[in-house]
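I am sending you the entry underneath: sequence plus fold tokens. Let me know what the token row says about the fold:
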Amino acid sequence: MRILLVTNSFSRVHVVYLARALAPDHPVHVVSFGKDHDPRSLGKLQWFSQATLVEREDRPGLLRGWKSLEPHSVVVNRSAEMERALRLLASRDEYDLIVFEQLAMAQYGGCGFPRERTRLFAVDCLTRALLQVALRGGSPGAFLGGGLGCLLMRRYESSMAARFPATIYVSKVDAEYAVKRRLVPAERVKILPLAVDTDYFIPSAEAQRQANLLVFFANLGEYKSEHGLLWFHRNVWPLLKRRLPDLRLEVVGVNPRPRVQALAMRDPDVTVVGFAADLRPRIRAAGCVIVPLRIGVGMKNRVLESLALGQAVVSSSAGVEGLGVRNGRELLVADQPRDFAEQVESVLTNPALASELGLAGRAYVEREHTLAMLRGRFLAGIAGVHVVPEPPLRAVPANA
């Protein structure tokens, strides 16, 4: 099977993993914007059979999307050059399956490809994500921006889903929400859980775990990551420092925003590392990996990678949404500041507990989230588009 994957970022972890899982039997030709990519990401192109990188035009301002009554993410990914490239590829009729990854790229679904061969890999339900920003962002700006964005995205998400034979989400929770809110008909929904490279992210017996070190890693340019980290530092960190004065926090990830960078300037026990070519040594060194997200949809690669490394994880409910993990078994879950602090302290001061969580977390990833499983689920999921996911979708609260 020859697959064309249309995305706005070829370097996303789940995009690369999908290409790796399908190769070499099902070569993946990726079409992506390329100008904005860090040169350090170009090595990931080796996993695709072919790559077409398109120059992105200058990004418009935020108001342009609102004036056109379209989501901002759609407007910034609109490109005449991308459309020309896709129309040329469609005219060659060389592909058995065309996958549009991310809702913003669904706007190119009408570039001449046979509809029955197309799939929308939405990944997350962005209508739901923006509703969470409005309800949980904690500021008038978040309420207004998230609320308006949610209204625009709802209209766009439902209209795009109607164009494709199937819409794929990584989380059952998102899929259920999309069906309940009538964004996507139940018979057109597919679920494709994320995977992790369990041969690369593997526990190391030689790793020196530092009981006074917390690690938070994420794409720090994302609002949800910044929001969760700032919530932790404001509400949980002081509680922990009173009990564990030598505790340090290491923040790892690309694109740290000014408010994140300011943490390290104000607090000598916080270090903002930024980009790390290899995350494994930093995660392995942690006494505990924290995932204090307050806003979250889909699945979190950072959780799966930490579990695969056999690390103890303390997360909010939003951080583990969509995963089949159990609180107290594979990791610890807490949502209130005092509870979160207590769970972190219990991991840092109880090596036996940290070890038990690490072993169970690794076993869970091996059971549910390997690249081989991703390959099987993808191929089975695209075989027929009129199959309702099992077990049957259930309703979730509209404001979830």
